[in-house]
Amino acid sequence: MHLKIALLAGDGIGPEVIEQAVKVSKAVAKKYNHNIEWTHALMGASAINSVGHPYPKETHEICLKSDAVLFGAIGDPKFDNDPSAKIRPEQGLLEMRKKLGLFANVRPTFTFPSLLDKSPLKRERIEGTDLIFLRELTGGIYFGDRGRKDNGNTAFDTCTYSRNEIKRLAIKGFEIAMKRSKKLCCVDKANVLESSRLWRETVQDLEKSYPKVDVSYEFVDAVAMRLVQWPNSYDVLITENLFGDILTDEASVISGSMGLMPSASLGLKNALYEPIHGSFPEAAGLGIANPLGTILSAAMMFEMSFNMKKEGEEIRNAVNWSLKEGKVTQDLTEKGSKGLSTSEVGDYLAGLIK
Ligand code: IPM
Ligand code: MN
Predict the structure, then answer these.
(1) Residue 153 CB partners (closer than 8 Å, separation 6+)
(2) Buried residues in 9-40 as b, exposed as e (16+ CB within 10 A)
(3) pTM of structure
(4) Is the same domain home to 283 and 353?
(5) How many structural domains comprise the chain?
(6) Segment 176-188 mean pLDDT
(7) Ligand 1, closest atom to CA 249?
(8) Which residue among 90, 91, 249, 280 has the greatest number of ligand 1 atoms within 8 angstroms of its CB, and so is best to mutate?
(9) Spatial separation of the C-alpha atoms in residues 70 and 264, rounded to whole Å
(10) Residue range of the domain that includes 174
């Protein structure tokens, strides 16, 4: 099959981890006789530096024409520390999500048997954790009205959701739940927020169409707590944009390293795959970044965008093997031992697949 993939390396460690995902994808493509056409495009701070915009028009065109987008990371401290900066890398990411209509952000959290003792949580608490967050990605407070009043002394951000926005996300959640353990948790703050009450109402209406799915409704503060107490008591969780942002960072450390978790952002026509970690600017260029989150994002891409289950499985098996054999970057080695470089991990995995 001929696959067109847009490559947005982005900032910080983005280019290094993307390079490894490309190596691994090429190895899989070769083995299964696929032909991949890669197109690089600018994104984030690096795009601001070269063309003055974090999500240039050309990048958008390239994404629209691709079968999938593989993305590294975004962000640069130069902008974080300047609250008056008019153009920020993150605006590019939000613009891309909105313009490509990527409303459903799939963020799994799972543990690797060989890494159970790397987690900050006790082994017996996390064993068997395998959950999926479905985060709404193009609405809510991220995209609502915001501004200043009273001569700049009061600021506001508004959270707005329509029934349709909630419904399309929730339907995806029910569909994923049907393929798994048929357990769905709707995360909200319906004891306080009107938008959350509409979430609850909408999900309750949908329950009738999915009688086999067991739905629970939980407040976001309680979920934040139970997530670190009994993460393996959850399966599929659906939630709005900001709650999902926060909870998925919290959940990501359960596996032992934030560098491990992949994600998919799905729209009606387009899809983007990226690790959930940030641009880790302190590590850029040092060859110490863990590429596994990006490589596992490529696995999700094969499975979800191209419906190539074997190819995805091939990548996952290689990753599991590398973890078991200790062929890992420094963040996952025993204290004092050096570990492989970012690029050596990529080479090792590509070699295994071959
Ligand atoms: C994420 C990131 C982004 C978000 C930032 C970079 C805008 O934290 O993908 O979770 O808040 O959505
Ligand atoms: Mn985030």
Answers:
(1) none
(2) bbbbbbbbbbbbbbbbbbbbbeeeebebeeee
(3) 0.95
(4) yes
(5) 2
(6) 97
(7) 10
(8) 90
(9) 9
(10) 112-260
Distance of CA 310 to the CA centre of its chain: 22
8 A C-beta contact, residue 70 and residue 301: yes
Q: Which two tokens stand for residue 119?
A: 């987690």
Torsions phi, psi of 49, nearest 5? Answer: -65, -35
Does residue 82 belong to any structural domain of this protein?
yes
Q: What is the CB-side half-sphere exposure of residue 313 using CA atoms within 13 A? A: 5
136-171: per-residue pLDDT in tens?
999 999 999 999 999 999 999 999 999 999 999 999
Among residues 22, 24, 32, the alpha carbon closest in space to that of 1 is found at 32
CATH number at residue 346: 3.40.718.10
Q: Determine the average pLDDT of the residues in 177-185.
A: 97
User: Which of 109, 71, 65 is closest to 92 using CA atoms?
Assistant: 71
Whether 133 and 251 have beta carbons less than 8 Å apart is answered as: yes
Domain finish residue from 260, 284, 315: 260
* Ligand 1 atom nearest to CA at 274: 9
| Residues 233, 181 contacting (CB under 8 angstroms) | no
- Report the C-alpha gap between 243 and 220 in whole angstroms: 7
Residues 122 and 223 both lie in one domain: yes
Protein residue with least CA distance to atom 6, ligand 1: 90
What the block records as the tokens of 235 is 């399966």
Token readout for 308 is: 């190539």
Query: Which amino acid is it at 177?
Result: A
For residue 265, the cross-strand partners are 105, 272
Asked whether 267 and 290 are in contact (CB, 8 A), the reply is no
CA of 245 to the centre of ligand 2 (A): 5
Q: Which of 17, 19, 31 is nearest to 314 (CA)?
A: 31
